[in-house]
Amino acid sequence: MVFIGSFAYYVIPGFLFPSISVVSILCLVYKNSITMHQIGSGLNGLGIGSFGLDWSTVAGFLGSPLATPATAIFNIVISYILIVYVLLPLGYWTNVFNAKSFPLISANVFDSHGQPYNITRIINYDSFTVNFYQEETYSKLNITTSFALVYCANFAGLTAAIMHVALHHGKDIWKMWTNTKVFVQGRVEDVHSRLMKRNYESVPQWWFLVLLVTVFGLSLFTCLGFDKQLQLPWWGVLLASTTAFVFTLPVGVIVATTNTGVGLNVVSEYIIGLMLPGKPLANVTFKTYSSMSMWQALSLLGDLNLGHYMKIPPKSMFIVQFAGTMIAATVSYGTAWFILDTVKHICEPSKLPQGSPWTCPNDDVTYNASIIWGLVGPTRMFGKLGHYSALNFFFLIGFLLPIPFWFLAKSFPQYKWLKYIHIPLLISGGSGVPPVHSVNYIMWGFIGIFFNYFVYKRHKTWWARHTYLMSAALDAGVAFMAILIFFALQSHNISGIHWWGGNANDHCPLATCPVAHGVVIENCPIM
């Protein structure tokens, strides 16, 4: 019933009335105020007074809140409040890094006059590298306060994750590492391990080794072949694999205990940006190999763990995971090719028809990140040649911050709430803005706290029986209706009904306007 309801309902926000996905009250009341639009916009502002009546708004970016523990949800919501409601307004309205010349929240890059950065003025198209002389004569690259905070949180979040795992799980990890031989020989087993070992054969190690060598060889061929257009040398592939290997354990512990991970993408961009500045394709390629290899490893571990508890043969799990990955990669590539070939003006919001969903917020962030870390490079942005060098201190802040909270939790065990303070999540949990919108965090936090805290406390039996099934049904209903809408309507250039509610935005056109004096932006009043 939940699946049918989700499937049937999504035709309203997905086609008939997209505006209910984000309703921003302050923008509807104060239609001509930049400040009110910045405060009230659920898409491009702080989201105060905004909400959404669409499950894709709740789970589209952050995943289903019904599958995340309440303690993790509280940490992420507090992180969002600290970043978006405290640090962001403080930095923006005190004009840190000339913030008022740019939008409040945006993942785009700008020149020193507040205009969108003209990449064509600094790029060598013959080699797809940066012309540093042209960059010096044109303008330094600038980012918004919100985007700077995203990087601060990513810097601190990853080092905090390392320290958090070392403090809270270091002894267990060290014990397992020093007794690896004992575990491999099966002398330390729980009931699940004994049952699996008694009934099924384990996956031979040579399966993993053959897969590793094959995929690594194909990766080298991809980067070194095709006229080396991807710009990444052989050692870059090796370094990306090593980076993924090193961070799989600490990030995996965070994911296993909170259902939320800490991103590796920014640090990957930083590493290769220092080694290969001015090469954006090398930067994106390295980030893909390092970050996605780690997440694919964690996905495999999660599936094997699920199969372990459900008593599914390990070999079957391995084969299905491998086959599923190959099928998913092929389908994803084919789908992307098909959409890019058939959807006119995809990823160009200003040219798309009213109600079109093809705005590509994640791809926009990836593109601008390739400019920041790959084309211009971290040295000219976050190093001695850039004006964001102070952000590097967040690596140290993140590394040190878990220590006092761990000490307090150990010293005062009577205060049980101290052990629920999760510093990596408090730092990076709310750092998704952008591309995640304020309304996504608001609705995700509201639904998650309601079900996984209040409903869980009062109706545990109902919660245990229905919550995860309901989550899967809601996700599936939206997904199937979205596919139906695309093939039946949008693929035939029928994007929606042309009326006020058919616009897939929150009716806050001034939220992206700067407030600095003299900055001229199209469709924005001059201050």
UniProtKB/TrEMBL annotation:
UniProt-annotated location(s): Membrane
Q: What GO MF terms are annotated?
A: oligopeptide transmembrane transporter activity
Which superkingdom, per the lineage?
Eukaryota
Q: Name one Pfam family in it.
A: OPT
Residues passing through the membrane, by range:
6-30, 42-66, 72-93, 148-167, 206-226, 233-256, 318-340, 390-409, 438-456, 468-489
What membrane topology is annotated for this entry? Answer: Multi-pass membrane protein
An individual GO BP term: protein transport
What's one GO-annotated cellular component? membrane
Its keywords, alphabetically, are: Membrane, Peptide transport, Protein transport, Transmembrane, Transmembrane helix, Transport
Q: Which family does it belong to?
A: Belongs to the oligopeptide OPT transporter (TC 2.A.67.1) family.
What is the recorded name of this protein?
Oligopeptide transporter 1
| Native species | Platanthera zijinensis
UniProt lineage: Eukaryota, Viridiplantae, Streptophyta, Embryophyta, Tracheophyta
Q: Gene encoding this polypeptide?
A: OPT1
